[in-house]
Amino acid sequence: MDLIEEVARLNGFDKIPVTNRITHAVSAEGVQQRTRRELGQVLVAAGFDEAMTPTFVDAGENELFGLSDPILIDSRVRRTNNALRGTLLPSLLKCCKTNQDAGIADLSVFELAKVFPRDSACDAGILPACLADVPSASSLSPAVSSSLPKQKQKQQDAGETPTTHEGKMPSPHAGETPATQEAHLPREFTELAMVTTRDLRFLRGAMEVVIQRLAPQAKVEFRTSQQRQSGDWRSQAFAPGAAAEIFLDSKPAGDLGMIDPAPLGHYGLEKPLAAGRLNFEMLLAYAGTVRQYTPVPRFPAVHRDLSLVLDEAVTWRQIEQAVAAASQPMRVGLEYVVTYRGKPIPAGSKSVTITLTYRSGEGTLRGEQVDEQVQQVVASMERELAAEIRK
């Protein structure tokens, strides 16, 4: 209501038409609204609670997450919490601290909101007045600040809303086209962030369910990642060796991992935390996908377990790629079972057990048909990963 009143005041109350009827257009739920609702349903069912946190954080908090050059507003407007958050993680970690102090030991929370990572296209030091609590001269470009009448400058310094003689807000960059003005705005996008006191496997499972629900046709990959360069929206918040990047159809879409001890110590958090983020706008690109009906298979599936001795450095993604290298149209599933280390497995190696699932739409598979398919996978494993069948 405050925004509507301000718009009406600037435009002029006398220009608002008066009628004896009130109409309200009823429209169907849009794709974004429906996607947000479905996302909330999935995460609440998984045991997460939704959080709503402030957009502003301290500049130092952004630095903890690899964002060393945050977008600031004038210190005369806000002396603390005067930086736009480049990620939702600082806000959610503070939420975890509040719950910890209240004696809540087990916690899983998520938030879906805008973030404002620094971008090289941003006009350094300029924040649009609509993003600040009160407009100030330093939030405008020098050219605009110097062009304002002195009386308006005084109003501005006093915390009043500056207006032109037509009663409108001054343009942040006078004389520029709307497209050029838009280039000076901070880069922003909607981020989904999740934090939990449970382990990383639980978080990954929740992330996979979200993607499967909202983007069922997207190819999802989790790739092991190290610390990233400063300024990347996928921050340096995660502990080395305990983080992964998320890709949708080979495009970076987010990350997840265990929070590094430095942020945990900064917020006074006592328990390890797993966190993950997704670019919600990338998920929206898949929203509305029509699910395809698939009839119930007429013939039973055949499952075969394989225990493979592999080098310790081999990842699950490499195993998936090696299995995929053996082209098999009858293979309908690949599942991880367990990893074993110890005698008689040599030091520096591990035993990984996987389950291969085969099915034919033309009839029940015979044992020799499946054996032939399994041998192709074994040959691919030996060739690609120097794997050995565990005796």
List the topology elements:
Layout: H1 2-11, H2 31-45, E1 49-50, E2 56-57, H3 59-64, E3 83-84, H4 89-101, E4 108-115, H5 142-147, H6 150-157, H7 178-183, E5 189-196, H8 200-214, E6 220-224, E7 238-248, E8 251-259, H9 261-267, E9 274-279, H10 280-284, E10 302-311, H11 316-325, E11 331-340, E12 349-358, H12 367-385, E13 388-389
Parallel strand pairs: 1-4
Antiparallel strand pairs: 2-3, 4-5, 5-9, 6-7, 7-8, 8-9, 10-12, 10-13, 11-12
Helix pairs in contact: 2-8, 11-12
Polypeptide structure, described:
- The relative contact order is 0.11.
- Residues 120-176 and 227-235 have low confidence and may be disordered.
- The chain folds into 3 domains: 25-122 and 186-293, Bira Bifunctional Protein, Domain 2 (BirA Bifunctional Protein, domain 2), CATH 3.30.930.10; 132-181, no CATH class; 302-389, Ferrodoxin-fold anticodon-binding domain (Alpha-Beta Plaits, 2-Layer Sandwich).
- The protein has helices spanning 2-11, 31-45, 59-64, 89-101, 142-147, 150-157, 178-183, 200-214, 261-267, 280-284, 316-325, 367-385, and strands spanning 49-50, 56-57, 83-84, 108-115, 189-196, 220-224, 238-248, 251-259, 274-279, 302-311, 331-340, 349-358, 388-389.
- The chain has 391 residues and is an alpha+beta fold.
- The chain is built from 12 helices and 13 strands.
- The strands form 3 sheets. The protein has a 7-stranded mixed sheet, sandwiched between helices. It has a 4-stranded antiparallel sheet with strand order 11-12-10-13, covered by helices on one side. A two-stranded antiparallel ribbon has the order 2-3.
